[in-house]
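To: structure subgroup
Subject: Chain for Friday's discussion

All,

I'm putting the inputs and outputs inline so they're searchable in the archive.
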Amino acid sequence: MCMQNKNIGFLRAGVFGDTIIALHGIYATKVLYPESQLIVYTNRYGVSLYSGFDFIDKIIDISNFDDKLLIENINQYEFEIFILTNPNRKYCKPLAKTNCKRIFSFLSAINIFNLKFKTLFYPRKFSYETHYKRILKLVRKSNPKKYDNCKFDFSKIAIQPQQKQIDIIDEFLNKNNISTNRQTIVVINPFVHSVAYNISINGWKKLAKQLAQAYKNFAFIIPTYSMNPQFSIDTTCDNIFTFYNDDDLLNIAALLKKTSLVLSPSTGTSHLANNLKIPIIWFCNHYDSKRWRGDNMNENFFIMLEKSLAQMDIKEEEKLILKAINLFKIFFDNKDAYYK
């Protein structure tokens, strides 16, 4: 099929981490159809994270689109191929009414009987294939023979902060007398909103304090935002710092690029660390350890959460904190071990 001068659509509108893991698929789509205009439909997370990539020809923010506006916008491009990674009613229903010739998506009850949709089936409870690989298979389905002969350089999907974000982080570090030349920077991210598996905020405070007291020449930075109601730390440790971010997610990318290690539950920050090849001690359950793990993660540094936060007792949490401290020591005793 000749796709020269044709339009290709790609829709990914999820939360922070969902947006990051779609980058493999977006990039692969452009490699597969280099002469076509690649138009990505996304939300505010995608607008922030995707704006720096030259393999995306156009980004459309659909955060405030209703069905009518989405249909009208899509119809003007007369897409030969449209890749929909969110196969829910919110998007399947309007996409079915567009003039897109072929829509590639995951099978759902909403699109199962619509012949315009070319679908892949993945049983949620029985398939643990990493989600970004599922999206790549969706891209492949549009042209398997050509896809299998393409060469993909996924180093091109590394998220790059701009000078504005770099300056913000440099100002924060200078204000707090944190020197990347003299100190090792560690980011501790306690927060997750999309999954129920985590240790408590008090547990994270305890972990941060014990690490800060044991590694006084390290700078421990906790990224949060000014309106976050669940975070305040009362500690005498002068090497724990809080970075209050605004809505710009690239500020976190700029911070992580100066970081030696991240500790985080399964959330957007962990996906960003993976994208930037920053080592991570990852608090996750079995499901996330399979479906959401990244290629740059080391499973030996996973802390498996057998129970949700609501089910976990203090003794169980204490064991997880001790394991995190032990993995922290192992990492800094021999960083090369992480990459083996």
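Points worth raising on Friday:
DSSP finds 13 helices and twelve strands in the chain.
The chain has a mean pLDDT of 92.

D.
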